Amino acid sequence: MATIDSVLDSTKFNLGIQPTDLTFDTALIIDINAVLMVLNQLGITSDVLSISDNTTTWADLFPTGDDAYFAALKPYVHLKVQAMFDPSSSGVVNNSINSLISELETRLTIHSETREVI
After folding, report:
1. Is residue 2 part of a domain?
2. Is residue 15 part of a domain?
3. How would you label 71-98 residue by residue, b for 16+ Cβ within 10 Å and e otherwise?
4. CA–CA separation, 57 vs 60, rounded Å?
5. 83 lies in which domain range?
6. How confident is the prediction along the chain (118 residues), in pLDDT tens digits per residue?
7. CA 87, CA 11: separation in Å to the nearest integer?
8. How far apart are CA 73 and CA 111, in angstroms?
9. Based on the structure, what is the number of domains in the chain?
10. DSSP 3-state assignment of 6?
11. From CA 71, how far away is CA 25, in angstroms rounded?
12. What pTM value is reported for the model?
């Protein structure tokens, strides 16, 4: 499977939405931008980042070249958006997702303290 570079399209893919389905784009863009603001508030980004459509890529937002850092940023955004946009009806699943989000926040925050903020 090819990698999806678009922030919006990869988030849609993780939610089981086809990239060609534009039905939820506005809601997803709002949620993605909210998560990007949280990254700024955590001190992980130096600026509040945002997207406006499916042309913004992950490399546009996070051009660091730090693969380990990037490997945590992408699932963090996806999980936070999933928790906001499509929460599970199962409390166990929600607890698991929230636990993963919390762990990624901690790891990203620690990593950002030892490197230059992006």
Report:
1. no
2. yes
3. ebbbebbbbbbbbebeeeeeeeeeeebe
4. 5
5. 7-113
6. 557 899 999 999 999 999 999 999 999 999 999 999 999 999 888 889 999 999 999 989 887 767 777 788 999 999 999 999 999 899 999 999 999 999 999 999 988 888 765 5
7. 14
8. 11
9. 1
10. strand
11. 24
12. 0.90
